[in-house]
């Protein structure tokens, strides 16, 4: 019976059939796949035209910020983020050491290469951000389930009027409820991605969601100076936010991915109305995350260096030059993009995300 199921073999005998059956049993007990090649992602901030950046070999995604840039592009790897920039912001370019495939499927713009995947989608937000987030995250969940890059490492959320509404009706809190409902049980604490959630200072009418995913799961990290966001107490809303403070990808050639980091210690906002003190608290939180990551990856530099990329979100348009100057003093030579964006608590004036290593 078994012999009929096996491909014809010139030396077939009852002995070799038994041997093959044994080999199949041995193979079935081995890990299903060979180790995947180590992914590598380079993130560069470049003063270039989108066409030029998209034409570079291995380009996974290109992000344009502010009003000076194209809002749409036929290439699905280009994404416009409508946050105003300080002057003309450079493009953010993601590159891998591999060929990249790309397309648009069911309204999701996507690309894949080198063990990594980029994806982006937008949902109309006519005022019910809980519904918009639930819809977007259910689509993300379904996409990941059917994807060969099922592990989200890093997610960005951009929404309108993030702190509008009182108490539990505040839009960020409703967003957290919708996100959790949409993603369902797909992401438990041990699988949470690093994330950013920032408000547009001007209404756009849409909720924008984009992500970096991988074939291999990473290690979510927490910050010993901060309570895990998913354990925030009830005073911050009915649904604690589902994200990790940082994520270390499986590949040692990948940078540490830092979530949106604000002047939060424990669960409390610090230095109300003091922008420079908040900025220093943010930098202390970033240093603490890097120190945590170094317990897993001692090769990472102790403090931000030339490998670090920072994206800085500042609440008040008038304060952008001040933050840019302060960062030039605190972290000279570290590439940064400074944008106007609203942090999800009214008293927080600045937030920074990025990568390191
Ligand atoms: C904080 O520490 C700031 O809801 O995905 C930072 C990063 C923040 C991500 C999110 C929120 C999120 O709570 C806010």
Describe the structure.
The chain has 357 residues and is of the alpha+beta class. The protein has a single domain (60-356), classed as 2-Layer Sandwich (60s Ribosomal Protein L30, Chain: A), CATH 3.30.1330. Helix content is 24%, strand content 29%. The protein has seven helices and 18 strands. The strands form four sheets. The chain has a six-stranded mixed beta sheet. The radius of gyration is 23 Å and the shape is globular. The termini are far apart.
The CATH class is identified as Alpha Beta
Query: Strand content of the residues, in percent?
Result: 25-35%
- Could you tell me the number of beta strands? 18
- State the low-pLDDT regions, or none: 1-15
Find the CATH topology: 60s Ribosomal Protein L30, Chain: A
As a percent range, the share of helical residues equals 10-25%
CATH superfamily descriptor: RutC-like
Any guess at the CATH architecture? 2-Layer Sandwich
Strand order of the largest sheet: 5-6-7-10-8-9
- CA(first)-CA(last) distance: 57 Å
Query: What is the H-and-E element order?
Result: HHEHEEEEEEHEHEEEEEEEHEHEE
* Rough outline: globular
Q: Which ligands are bound?
A: 3-(2-carboxyethyl)benzoic acid
Number of domains: 1
Q: Please tell me the overall pLDDT.
A: 92
Largest sheet: 6 strands, mixed
The total count of helices amounts to: 7
Q: Class by helix and strand content?
A: alpha+beta
């Amino acid at each position: 019976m078994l012999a009929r199921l096996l491909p014809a073999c010139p030396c077939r005998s009852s002995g070799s059939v038994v041997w093959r059956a044994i080999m199949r049993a041995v193979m079935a007990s081995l890990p299903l796949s060979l180790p995947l090649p180590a992914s590598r992602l380079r993130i560069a901030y470049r003063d270039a035209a989108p066409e030029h950046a998209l034409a570079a070999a291995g380009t996974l995604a290109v992000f344009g910020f502010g009003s000076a840039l194209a809002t749409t592009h036929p290439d699905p790897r280009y994404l416009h983020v409508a946050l105003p920039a300080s002057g003309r912001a450079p493009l953010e370019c993601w590159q891998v050491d591999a060929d990249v495939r790309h397309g648009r499927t069911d309204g999701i713009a996507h690309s894949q290469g080198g063990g990594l995947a980029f994806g982006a989608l937008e949902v109309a937000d006519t005022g019910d951000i809980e519904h918009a987030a639930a819809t977007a995250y259910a689509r993300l969940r379904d996409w990941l389930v059917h994807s060969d890059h099922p592990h989200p490492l890093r997610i960005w959320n951009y929404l309108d009027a993030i702190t509008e509404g009182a108490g539990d009706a505040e839009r960020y809190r409703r967003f957290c409820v919708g996100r959790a409902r949409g993603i369902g049980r797909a992401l438990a604490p041990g699988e949470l991605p690093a994330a950013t959630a920032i408000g547009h200072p001007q209404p756009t009418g849409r909720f924008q969601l984009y992500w970096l995913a991988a074939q291999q799961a990473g290690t979510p990290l927490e910050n010993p100076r901060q309570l895990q966001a998913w354990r925030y107490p009830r005073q911050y809303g009915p649904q604690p936010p589902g994200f990790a403070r940082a994520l270390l990808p499986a590949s040692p050639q990948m940078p540490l991915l830092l979530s949106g980091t604000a002047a939060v210690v424990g669960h409390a906002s610090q230095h109300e109305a003091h922008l420079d003190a908040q900025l220093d608290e943010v930098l202390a939180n970033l240093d603490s995350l890097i120190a945590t990551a170094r317990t897993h990856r001692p090769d990472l530099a102790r403090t931000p260096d030339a490998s670090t990329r920072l994206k800085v979100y500042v609440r008040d348009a008038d304060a952008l030059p001040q933050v840019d100057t302060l960062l030039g003093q605190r972290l000279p030579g570290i590439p940064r993009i400074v944008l106007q964006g609203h942090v999800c608590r009214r008293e927080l004036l600045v937030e920074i995300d990025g990568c390191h290593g």
